[in-house]
Amino acid sequence: MTSRRLRQRDREPVPADAGWRNARRTVGPVGGPPPAFPAPSDEPERRHEVLVDVRLTAATPGSHLLDYLRTEPCAVEAWWIAADIDAVVRLSASSLTVLHRAVADLQRRGGTEVVATHSILRPLDLSGADQTTITTVPARLPSPA
Q1: Which residues are CB-contacts of 33 (< 8 A; sequence separation ≥ 6)?
Q2: How far apart are CA 51 and CA 53, in angstroms?
Q3: What is the pTM of this model?
Q4: With contact defined as beta carbons under 8 Å apart, do 50 and 118 qualify?
Q5: What are phi and psi of 42, to 5 degrees?
Q6: What does the pLDDT read at residue 24?
Q7: Which distant-in-sequence residues (6+ apart) come within 8 Å of 57 by Cβ?
Q8: What's the rounded Cα separation, in Å, for the pair 51 and 98?
Q9: CB within 8 Å of 17: residues ≥ 6 apart
Q10: CA distance linking residue 102 with residue 95, whole number of Å
Q11: What is the pLDDT of residues 78-127, one digit of tens each?
Q12: What string of DSSP letters covers the chain?
């Protein structure tokens, strides 16, 4: 619980030379214009992406997951998998908060059990790989005796 004194102090403008502790606070009257935003750069917007391994619950048909993914704005791609899991879903969002919510919603509203979540850090650059054709040599199997 904050005291009246602290709340009043928070409303007062902070001088520019107040020190590093108050660097986050804006200078000027409260309710004034917001500080200028940095100029937009040529860099693309940072996207956070994850691959989510999911398993359908016993009561969830696959069509329910498909219907949910079609309405989910963060869902980019999805694949059915023949393994211990049922599907892999790629989610993408502009913030980690939105991405965490999308993973939670996939479990809660999509009717799935989230088995694992893998964060995508950056793509691998495969352009420097040698473009020559790789030839395979057939393996020699021992003849049955």
Answers
A1: none
A2: 7
A3: 0.57
A4: yes
A5: -80, -5
A6: 47
A7: 111, 112, 113
A8: 15
A9: none
A10: 11
A11: 999 998 999 999 999 999 999 999 999 999 999 999 899 999 998 888 88
A12: ---HHHHHHHHS---TTS-GGGTTSPPS-TTSPPPPPPPP-SSPPP-EEEEEEEEE-TT--HHHHHHHHHH-TTEEEEEE-SSSSSEEEEEEESSHHHHHHHHHHHHHTTTEEEEEEEEE------TTS--SPPP-PPPPPPPP-
Sign for the pseudo-dihedral over CA of 129, 133, 136, 137: negative
Place of tokens 């964060």: 119
Cα 121 from Cα 48, distance rounded (Å): 8
Supply 102's token pair: 């999308």
* Rounded Cα–Cα distance for residues 145 and 135 (Å): 30
Place of tokens 């893998």: 118
Place of tokens 């420097």: 128
In 3D space, the residue among 99, 102, 116 whose CA is nearest the CA of residue 72 turns out to be: 102
Residue 85 to residue 39: CA distance in whole angstroms: 45
The residue length of the chain stands at: 145
